Amino acid sequence: MSKFKIILVSIITIALVILTTAVVYQNIKYDKIAKEDEKVTDECIYEENEIDNDTENVKVSSAETRVSPNADLVIKTYYKGCGHTTQETKTVPNDMVNKDQEEIENLYPDYKLESFANNKIVLNKEEEGQCNEHYMVRDENGEIIIYKILNDGTEEIYQNTGISTEYLPETDKINLRDGVKVYGKENLNSMIEDFE
User: Fold this and answer.
1) Please, which contacts does 85-94 make with residues 24 or more away whose CB atoms are closer than 8 Å?
2) Count of CB atoms situated within 10 Å of the CB of 166
3) Which residue has the higher pLDDT, 93 or 60?
4) Distance of CA 193 to the CA centre of its chain
5) Are 133 and 186 in contact, with CB atoms under 8 Å apart?
6) Residue 95 is part of which domain span?
7) pTM for this structure?
8) For residue 101, what is the domain's CATH number?
9) What confidence tier does 86 reach under pLDDT thresholds 50, 70, 90?
């Protein structure tokens, strides 16, 4: 063999040995890193499981509904005497802000809680007697007078309209002499507008 071929074979052999050594060294290095990563992942899973186990023992509701400062408070009152229900809507008072459902029920023990949300609370209550929305409209001395009917059935003057009955149709005049019962301010205002 020529000297050139021997040198070439030697160089190729040395290169193959170096390459093989590098590949083996890299594999050992990657295996070592992979085992460390696996160990870290296993520790994280173990720690995560410990945390999960701790939270299972504690019952906490982070989504508890509380009353907003600008929530609406709706109070419905049912009157047994007349069978009517009145409804009043207003902004919640300061003593209701940030309260939960149970605290609201404790604040208003005479009311039944119909619905509860952070932006609207509806309370119901039953009352004896009749609501204060009953009126009697009468003709007195040629003018239309409005009386409010009180719980005991008596009447008190609510408003002197100043509307003359002189030009009203005869049927309206007869009805007003006997008195016309009206329920609700809207109905009362509508009737008075018809007479104007």
Assistant:
1) 86/131, 86/133, 92/67, 92/68, 92/121
2) 8
3) 93
4) 39
5) no
6) 72-127
7) 0.53
8) 3.10.20.420
9) confident
